[in-house]
Write a structure and sequence with these properties.
Shape: elongated
Number of helices: 19
Number of strands: 15
Helix content: 25-40%
Distance between the termini: 99 Å
Strand order of the largest sheet: 1-2-3
Structural class: alpha+beta
Length: 508
């Protein structure tokens, strides 16, 4: 029995109630902090050097698009029958070192307590080459990717989503297998089984629905991308069935561009068709293509990459000692006569991007005049440009520079040796081939080797070249190799003059 001495006084009751309130407040604050740290705040790997940040830094694509790290690691093991021992390299992904955990162009970000991975800028902008007789592969940061097979990468995810064998049991077992090494605990297995897997499966199925039109497209092959058709479907839900898009517009695949020396390009008509003259807008738009959204984009990260490529120098020709200087001097004068007004010029003072001196540099040439394949140009429409200009509404960086043009743009040719194949759709394998009229250019050739042809300037394109080759047929929609020919373009010059032009372009 309690006595009156055990009974709490009114003051003690008030103090106890006060303590309970404070305890409740502290617990709520701690829960709020934990919730913020785990489910709201995001964590990225920081890189000290700008080039490492370009290669591996996150731009915000993981948040909306990226699968969990362990799913990305497990898929090549689950589907070894499709990817083989190459894993993600099957799709042209590159590794700086053989034992690197993730390829170049795949970054990490912890979102809602789960580490996720997805693409950054470098996946499309690191090229490779090796010299004849030398197996060492060289990376060129900032060069167009000549290896990435993005269409096949997309098709793989679509197929995985539709595969009845892609189950939670199979995924968890693969993650825990020695080849992947996930070693999930009981709690993590439950999360992967009942939360992660259903979301991943649903995302792959949705991708298959949105990008179903990809199966009707011509094969892109390595080093090419359809920049805007997937963009239309994923960002704006454009209908992409046969009733809404023509065969020409459906096949607008083109080569990736180089991204060095962006400062002098500000104000020029950018992209192959010159649809924007702002480097910043072009970059943010490209980031959307890598998987960011206007909500998830990491502006600070992209700004750091922009700063890096603003003055990134183009790579030097890899065999400078083999350049015939006498021919190059002859070619320099020919280039000044035939090419400089559209593409700028390099002399002892460096590359000149002076648009007062070279009046057509950075401008578009009407289709009827340039005569190159219409696919890429047709795929970009006025309606799409209008939709693009609504992106980032409410922010100071809202798009307002996208527009439809009448043709393809003239770009500077700095580092042109590292940007093969040529023309916007990569339909001509070498610079020397480009100086021939289209009737004499290769009509069927092979992309995929990164062995460099030092004489003709470009990758080897014969069937005996090493690598995973793709048969490029210029008669297929979007693959045409005509245009950029005639007197004005130097294709009527004698062979010796063409050789001299190529020799000079090695120096750009």
């Amino acid at each position: 029995m309690s006595s009156d001495n055990d009974r709490k006084t009114p003051v003690e009751i008030a103090v106890a109630r006060h303590r309970r309130w404070w305890l409740a407040i502290v617990v709520l604050l701690l829960l709020a902090v934990v919730y913020y740290l785990v489910f709201v705040n995001q964590y990225v790997v920081a890189f000290k050097s700008q080039s490492d940040h370009f290669m591996h830094g996150s731009i915000g694509s993981e948040t909306a698009t990226g699968p969990p790290y362990w799913v990305f690691k497990a898929l090549p093991v689950m589907y070894a029958d499709k990817l083989g021992p190459e894993g993600w390299s099957r799709f042209g992904f590159l590794y700086e070192k053989p034992d690197d955990d993730l390829p170049i162009g795949v970054s990490r970000r912890v979102v809602s307590g789960v580490e996720r991975v997805w693409l950054n800028c470098s996946v499309c902008h690191v090229g490779t080459y090796h010299l004849p007789g030398d197996p060492v592969r060289h990376l060129i940061p900032g060069a167009p990717s000549n290896n990435l097979r993005l269409q096949e990468f997309i098709r793989f995810f679509i197929d995985v989503g539709r595969d009845p064998g892609f189950t939670a049991d199979a995924l968890v077992a693969t993650i825990d297998s020695p080849k992947v090494g996930g070693d999930l605990n009981i709690f993590e297995r439950l999360i992967y089984r009942y939360v992660v897997f259903p979301r991943v499966k649903s995302a792959f199925l949705d991708l298959g629905t949105q990008l179903d039109f990809v199966k009707r497209q011509e094969d892109w092959g390595p080093g090419r991308v359809d920049t805007f058709n997937p963009y239309k479907a994923l960002q704006f839900n454009f209908p992409m069935d046969e009733a809404h898009i023509s065969g020409a517009a459906l096949n607008g695949s083109s080569d990736y561009p180089a991204i060095w020396r962006q400062r002098p390009r500000e104000g020029m008509n950018l992209h192959w068709d010159g649809n924007n003259d702002s480097v910043a807008e072009r970059n943010l738009s490209a980031a959307l293509g890598a998987g960011v959204t206007p909500v998830t984009v990491d502006r600070a990260s992209i700004a750091r990459i922009e700063d890096w490529m603003w003055d990134l120098p183009p790579p030097q020709f890899p065999a400078a000692a083999k350049i015939d200087q006498a021919k190059a001097a002859q070619g320099k004068m020919l280039f000044l006569h035939y090419c400089a007004d559209c593409h700028g010029f390099k002399d002892a003072n460096g590359y000149s991007y002076d648009r007062q001196r070279f009046t057509q540099l950075g401008k578009t040439v009407p289709l009827a005049e340039i005569g190159t394949d219409v696919g890429r140009w047709t795929s970009y429409t006025e309606n799409f440009a209008a939709e693009q200009n609504l992106l980032y509404a409410g922010y100071p960086w809202r798009f307002n520079r996208f527009h439809k043009t009448d043709g393809y743009a003239n770009h500077p040719l700095d580092g042109i040796w590292a940007r093969s194949p040529y023309l916007h759709n990569g339909s001509v394998p070498t610079l020397r081939d480009l100086l021939e009229p289209s009737a004499k250019r290769p009509s069927v050739w092979f992309r995929g080797s990164d062995e460099f042809d030092l004489a003709k300037v470009g990758y080897r394109s014969d069937q005996s070249a090493g690598g995973d080759l793709f048969r490029y047929d210029t008669s297929r929609p979007g693959n045409g190799n005509a245009g950029h020919e005639g007197y004005r373009y130097g294709t009527e010059l004698p062979d010796a003059a063409k050789d001299a032009l190529v020799e000079y372009m090695k120096t750009l």
